[in-house]
Amino acid sequence: MVPAQNVASFRRAAPFGISVILPLLVLVAAMKGGWFLLLPPLGTWWLYTGLDAVLGRNSENPDPEAPEDQLFWYRLITMIWVPIQFAMIFGILSFVVGADHLSTGEKFGVFFGVGILSGAIGIVYSHEMMHQTNRFERWLADLLLAMVLYSHFRTEHLLVHHPHVGTTRDAVTARYNEGFHRFFFRVLRESPVSAWKAEKSMLARRGLSVWDGKNPFWRYWVLQLMAMILAVIIGGWMGLALFAFQAIVAIWQLEITNYVEHYGLTRRHLGEGKYEPVKPHHSWNADHQATNWLFINLQRHSDHHYKPARRFPLLQTYPDDVAPQLPFGYVIMGFMAMVPPLWRRRMNPRVRAWRKRYYPDIEDWGPYRNGTLPPPAIR
């Protein structure tokens, strides 16, 4: 175990902070065009995947009791990304719209790179901050999500996904044999609705209408509208199209990650809509070192669901006998998910092995696979 004083050091935090220089790759792509458009995916997805092959896995666990005041550098990394992302999106937008050296296709290529970073980094950092009780960090999380037009994700993630993961109420728990493309459009359709219902239920318990000003959807809508208006002011309709395109790319990356994290894993139904508590074996775990730097330990997902409020530098990894393991990091697994036959060939045997290990007494997996079990009650 890594002692608390070592966890707090700048040297241990620094690899997670390399992300703050990645927008330079997008800037170069915007200035040069052509083959330079490959810089963002090469420097983000493939660089870290290559480093995984060199550095391997890191099964070392930090002291989970390290105090909050020793995590300054880690918190700074996530908070400083908000102005960086704002400058990256809207600064590059103002440059690209009037750039004569870029074709229309190249302009969208630049914003594909922007979407890589606003998704792989921005949404992941937002996810970290939305789990904290600090109001300032939660506001920063909302700002990041507004910049990718996916603000409802905060409500859906905190009020639906975490309490109901592995059940039929959680849209983002991918079902066994469900291909990513079907999953993606199902989640786009179901998640906003489930988020709205969760907020409605919470407000009702307080005796408030769903249209009350305390409903965070008002904030979500205003922030997203402001982001779109700014895009139009900067670049007109082309600016709005480019802004929306990077948001789609970011959302696509988020939902690939959601797909990978829980594919085929379910919680035991105890009868009458009740399910067993969430345990580490209800999420796929991965401890590939470099990709965990990029995704700030999100791959230690088993522990994140077991202890949702635990900050990313303190997340634990688990051995094979405690949590199911992914064969590769999120990037490779994400590309594999884009080809459903390849994904099923690789992952379905692992799901079946998981079933035998943790639930050898369950003989009929049909209701779990088909999503026909009764949903748990909304909290």
State the helical fraction.
55-70%
The structure class reads mainly alpha
* Molecular shape: globular
Strand content: under 5%
Main sheet properties: 2 strands, antiparallel
Short synopsis of the structure:
InterPro entries: AlkB/XylM (IPR033885), FA_desaturase_dom (IPR005804). Its main location: membrane. By secondary structure, this protein is mainly α.
List keywords for this structure.
single chain, about 375 residues, mainly alpha, 15 helices, globular
Layout of SSEs?
Blueprint: H1 4-7, H2 10-17, H3 23-32, H4 39-55, H5 72-97, H6 104-130, H7 135-146, H8 153-164, H9 180-205, H10 216-262, E1 269-271, E2 274-275, H11 289-294, H12 301-306, H13 330-337, H14 340-358, H15 366-370
Helix pairs in contact: 3-5, 3-6, 4-6, 5-6, 5-7, 5-10, 6-7, 6-10, 7-10, 8-9, 9-10, 10-13
Protein name: Alkane 1-monooxygenase
Organism: Aliiroseovarius salicola
Pfam family, one: FA_desaturase
What does this protein structure show overall?
By secondary structure, the chain is mostly helical. It has helices at 4-7, 10-17, 23-32, 39-55, 72-97, 104-130, 135-146, 153-164, 180-205, 216-262, 289-294, 301-306, 330-337, 340-358, 366-370, and strands spanning 269-271, 274-275. The chain has one domain. It contains 15 helices and two strands. A two-stranded antiparallel ribbon has the order 1-2. Strand 1 (269-271) and strand 2 form a beta hairpin. Helix 3 (23-32) runs antiparallel to helix 6, helix 5 runs parallel beside helix 7 and helix 7 crosses helix 10. The chain starts with a helix and ends in a 9-residue tail after the last helix. Belongs to the fatty acid desaturase type 1 family. AlkB subfamily. It is a multi-pass membrane protein. Its main location: membrane. It comes from Aliiroseovarius salicola.
